[in-house]
Amino acid sequence: MTAEDEPIPCDTCNKGRVTKRREQFAFRQMSNKGHVYCCVEVLIGTCDYCHAKSIDDEEVLDEAYQREYDKLP
After folding, report:
1. Beta strands in 7-63, from DSSP E residues, in sequence order
2. Residue range(s) defining the domain that contains residue 10
3. pLDDT tens, the chain, 73 aa long
């Protein structure tokens, strides 16, 4: 197991462990051109106790948004 794969303590509940894996994540965001719909694969952490989810790849989300925004008329 690499250091990236090791479970880390949950910041939300302080009881569980967060494990990260790549998952598909779909979202939409309002813009001046209307809704921008995106679907990307990002690293999502999930707590095994409270099931809280967190995303570390904010940059990937920003890039996906910009790519889809640029496609709009």
Report:
1. 8-9, 17-31, 34-47, 53-55
2. 3-71
3. 445 566 789 999 999 999 999 999 999 999 999 999 999 999 999 999 999 999 988 899 999 999 999 999 9
